[in-house]
Predict the 3D structure of the following.
Amino acid sequence: MVGVAGKSKGCHTCIKRRVKCDETKPICKRCTKAGYTCAGYNRPLRFLNSFQDGFSARTNDENITTRIKDISITPSPPPELGLVAFKDNICFSYLMDNFVWRTYGSPWFELAALGKMDRLSLDSCQALSQINFGSHYHQGDMQVQGAIQYGSVLRSLIPRLARSKEPGMEALVVPIMILLMYASSQGDRAGSGSHVAGLTQLLCSCGPEAFYSGTMRSAFESCRATLITVGLITKRRTFLEEPRWRTASWPSNTSPTDEQSRLTDLLALVPGLLDDKLLLDNGSKDLHPSEFISRLTSVLIGLFRWRWEWDEENLDVSSSEEGRTHRCRPSLQRLHFSSSTQASDIMLYNSVLMWIIGLLNAVSPHSAQKKIMIVAISTKSNTLSLCDDASPLLFPGQKVQLRDLAIEICQAFEWQIHNIKNHRSSSRFFLMPVGMAWSVLEKDEEYRTWITGMLDSSRVTRGYALSGNSFGFGNYAFPSISEGLT
């Protein structure tokens, strides 16, 4: 290093030991005598070309000054640099990659993860993100941190829930829903049940008025979807069937009602119908079959009216191409939608219709199809024909078999899963319709293989309700429509 002032000429080992080197080449004698391995004298390459300040005009004969600065080129990052500082960002990114949760909780879930709601919501997201990232990548310490955070949020929530009359209590819906996602993903049935009970208590205490607008409206819609799904699985009515909880009756100056919300108003009635069906099966005299059929017909009228109106507002939303494009796919038309929202609407509509047709077939097997056709004709718009050959979608009354509706759910889900990267809109019932379709089609090997293949095409949905899912969806239960209804 002759000619470079201020730089030590000793070997690397002596410099590190902070002792004077004898500078013997190629190996330092001082290191040899002391029993150290001499690291030699090679220096990392250090250079930087820089120009004189300014870009004023110069002649070609002007010299450009080149200075050497101390910039080391190293082959790898320093060993002391770790990813600990980025842990939360990595976990949150992994969490938001779950399109089922992301679309279920749009937009409140992402706002909570960004810390734009309250501290409890952020802490709940942190617990969920750590337990899921840790479980998927087998990081035990991260799983422990997630469990500790989960317990901490629980301890903070319990005393606040006891003060149910305080202003702003409705905001607790968000952290409780996230804790429910945590417990469900871990197969904690007791914890999940407690969170469902907490959501029910909180909604009843706050009343629907607390959720009329803003972020709380979207949080309510997600919460309502969860509680209705629980009611469908347990076949027990919920308080959400009451008129004041159905968004169609909410004031016009509240947040606008989307198509999924209108369908959810109808779906909210189904758990009560399933509950009453059990009464009929047990020979109860408190409910007459004709009254029950009348209630089913009322829901069917609302459902078919929605479908006709939806078709008028969504002209040419889908197209089809014939032929088998994959060996595991049945020879069916392929549906194409112009948006993920339209596909979600059709999947949810078919799900509600499957429940109503299944119940009608169960209580009135000989007249169910005729009643369905009468309702379809009576509710259709004058501008539409009952069967429009130009559309590949099933129209009201066109087919009344559960199998046909289940297949159309799978066709819409196929479009969803193939276009999932572009899916940013809300879909509060992303997997439930697929579970219902599965319960109808699972005995057919060809369709079972098709559905499994679609679910397995993404790590997020792989193993849904069948165990082995990295996000815990393998622990989920889905409503089965085939039991006693077909």
In short: Residues 289-313 form the longest helix (25 residues). The CA atoms of residues 81 and 87 lie 13 Å apart. The radius of gyration is 32 Å.
